[in-house]
Amino acid sequence: TNSQHIPYIQKCLSLAEQSPPRPTNFRVGAILLSRKDNDPTFKDDRILSTGYTMELAGNTHAEQCCFSNYAAFHKVDDDAVASVLPVESGRKLIMYVTMEPCGKRLSGNAPCAQRIARTTTGHEGIHKVYFGVKEPETFVGESEGCRMLTEAGIEWEHVGGLEGEILTVAFAGHENGAEEVRAALGDKEDTGDVS
Length: 195
Ligand SMILES: Nc1nc(=O)c(N)c(NC[C@H](O)[C@H](O)[C@H](O)COP(=O)(O)O)[nH]1
Ligand SMILES: [Zn+2]
Prior knowledge:
Elements: H1 6-16, E1 29-36, E2 46-52, H2 62-73, E3 91-99, H3 112-118, E4 126-133, H4 145-151, E5 155-158, H5 163-170, H6 177-191
Parallel strand pairs: 3-4, 4-5
Antiparallel strand pairs: 1-2, 1-3
Helix pairs in contact: 3-4, 5-6
The structure holds the ligand Nc1nc(=O)c(N)c(NC[C@H](O)[C@H](O)[C@H](O)COP(=O)(O)O)[nH]1 and zinc ion (ZN).
Zinc ion is lined by residues 61, 63, 101-102, 111-112.
């Protein structure tokens, strides 16, 4: 069941709530952790880094800040973060994000799915990404993040149950945020069963 992932999505949501509201992006929170294989209790999880949208200067994304915070702690440039991520036999690197990592950014900055994929170039890197909601179509239409992760051989999983809370936080800086939340949630119903 995905209930064991909910506490992490909720922690990411608390991070997202620290993000300054803007109409030009979503407020998102991210956590990077190391998890022992075959440990369903998660009691040996090690949080490596966290990030939220615009935590760091400039037009920064939650996942981008998560990596950048980790790179800074280990005194390397952002683009060298893969080289300082832990590689431990019997453990995997896992990321939790309130929203599907972006596959395209209107700003043209490197999308987070690409940043996550790059951790596996020449290194073990991120094994799996859990997120609480697919990216709404507001900025880029049909989201590409999951496809990019799959192409990079990175697993991903949608952890359902908190979509309303996540979208309400994400859209807080938007002119008609509540309406956009309803629309985004409504999209889900369209794709759901037709009972
Ligand atoms: N996963 C994710 N984490 C974030 O921290 C964030 N802000 C977005 N947002 C996705 C959205 O598609 C982009 O915010 C817009 O496409 C505008 O692009 P910029 O953010 O200006 O580069 N998505
Ligand atoms: Zn992003």
